[in-house]
Write a structure and sequence with these properties.
mainly alpha; about 75% helix
Amino acid sequence: RLEQRELLMSLTTVHRTAGMVWVGAAVHLVLLWRRGKRDGSAANFWPEAFARFVILGGGALALLFAGGVPLALIYVDSWRGLIGSAYGSVLIAKWTLMAAALALAFANFQAGRRWRKALTIPRPFFAEVESILLVVVLFAASALAALPPAVDITKQRATLSEVVQSFAPKMPQITSPSLTEEQAASAESAVVAREQSSAEEQWSDYNHNVTGLILLGIALIALLESTGHAPWARHWPLGFLVLAAFVLFRSDPSGWPLAPGVGILESFGKASWVQHKIAGSIPIALGLMEWRARTVPNAGSSLSFAFPILSIAGGLLLLTHAHGAFEMKAEYLTQISHTAMGMFAVFMGCGRWLEIRVDGPVGRSAGLGARVMLVLIALVLVFYREPLA
């Protein structure tokens, strides 16, 4: 920026340096634990390094806030700028992820104190998830750099009521326009202002809403499994095969199998078609691997991590995903749902990670939280509507 350059550069340097120290120390702490499995000296040093990390992380956190809070006040000038702009929504997601990382950091702090008092070896599991969250926060921060600061977006900000309306419960679109109607509406999409939804928006709404209904069914069965009273419910990951079938068939009507006269080989020449089919194929692998991990005894602990890893990766992509700026308010109102789902997906993956790694009530609570996040993602899709300009 042309104004306040010295102040902004100084604050940015402090903020980024503190972030690098915290994230780098957390990641290296986890790597030290893994090295300790084959190196006795690393294993012996692990508890001391853990205790030192707690002190280092506290100092880095103080500097992080010292640089970040003034930057936020400068780049976001008002509550409406925070709520009604893409910059503000990603910033809120970043703060939420940071709050979760802070909760895990506090758990690590308590473990470090216990080790110093009773020499109880701290476990790395909370540090693992803390590291994951902090890496996601870094990607969210990088996404902010690609967005115009909220202070510069005044006329195209969304109001609080428009943001609330984007997530408000509404009847899902369960009837689809014909392919001919969708293609005709798509050909007329150069018109910016729309007073009512066209067949193109209705096609998108139908795809999102039905996907949400399928996912909601999967999530409810997963919640039923957590009660322990329905053994058959452990097969809930197979529902992702139904989800994949729907996405593979309905995604991208410009190619096979929906577009008349367009074969599968010709469709491979369309980048968007290939991307949609790859995205639709991921739930197949996700569902089969999670089903095997939950139903086959001794299927291998590494297989269990496929679900949290893919959930976190998918959430990361949604968090860093940005729509174009041709219709800035409409694009933002679309993006905000992606941001919310991305954040929920990251939390879902972290919850499943802790469910695998931690025994007892903490692990069970984390697993329940992961299922709740799946419900929230499904509800965002069920209530999704393409915004009008």
